[in-house]
Every structure is written in structure tokens, then in C-alpha cells.
Give the backbone structure.
Amino acid sequence: MDYHPLELFGQHLIALRKTHGWSQEKLALESGLARSYIGGIERGQRNLALINICILAHTLQVSPSEMLNFFPDAISRKNKSA
């Protein structure tokens, strides 16, 4: 793999969180997940369980599939042509 899914997911989570104008602490409070856990996700250090992806999706008012929509266009095009 020439990309890092945990880092890409973390960057996507940051973008989604910021669309709400929320800090990590606010997301933690709203989701019931620890702020340190959310920080680890955003830094690409945590491998999430499906339940936590669903919790974050619900909290951020997006579908779970949107949580997984973190691949940059260049990677998506490369994988489709392979």
C-alpha cells in the first residue's frame, strides 16, 4: 500500500469535525468517546472499531459511508486503473 489509511481517516475526521466548528473536546463530549482517543484517531495512531466509526458518524450527522470516504482522488483513480 502506498497510502496510510489511518492517517487519511484522521485527516478526514478533522475536516468533518471542523465543519461543525468543534474542538476535539466538544466532539468527545458529544460522542461519549475520550478526547485522547479522538486525538489518536486524528493523528492516525488508532485503528477504529466499526462501532466507533458509527458513533462518530451519528455524532457528526453523516452516514458511516461518508466517514470512510477519505481517499484522495489521485489514489482512487490509481486503484481503479490497476
Notes: The domain at 5-81 is CATH 1.10.260.40 (434 Repressor (Amino-terminal Domain)).
